[in-house]
Amino acid sequence: MKPHIRILVLAFALLGAIGIAYGLNILEYRQNEGSARNLPGTVTTGEIQIGGAFAMVNQNGETVTEKSWPNQYRLIFFGFTHCPDVCPTELGKMTQALNLMGKNADKLQPIFVSLDPGRDTPAALKEYVALFNPKLVGLTGTPEQVETIRKAYRVYAAKVGDGDDYMVDHSAFIYLMAPNGDFIDVFQPDDSAEDMAKRLALLIK
Ligand code: NI
Prior knowledge:
By secondary structure, the protein is an alpha+beta fold. The protein contains five helices and nine strands; from the N terminus they run H-E-E-E-H-E-H-E-H-E-E-E-E-H. The longest helix has 35 residues. Nickel (II) ion (NI) binds next to helix 2.
């Protein structure tokens, strides 16, 4: 082979290798992105069974169910009012995303569900939700009612510690549900308020 042809062949081989490596990287990136979206347990995108019937008590002491917001998309987050970091961060982010959406945010009902019915009375929730967003609804109930909605949304929660100072370890997904109660999408702690606002604008009609 003449030297200049050999160089050409090498150059093409190198370009090919870069192309393959690049393609593989993209594939791997897509796969990672896909798996990061998956929820704990055996849930896979496309066949997600999240949501369902519930009866809870809101911050004003009124009973509400999954049918209480027939014309609203819902953004639902689970936590507890004594949470030192995750809940304030995520609820703050949810509020910020709604603010970024302007008028479109009117189609969304933000909801905070307590995983700590022992301490989170309607009165405690009323004070708490007001810190974030005047539109934010707080839900609590009997331990059985909370367990029903927790299971329906496949939320992880575990009490840690004893006495009055216990904590509740919990998953930190924000669920987007349709006005008819169907699951649409989930936001994670990694998603910024800007990410959320952008995706919400595409997802709600
Ligand atoms: Ni929390």
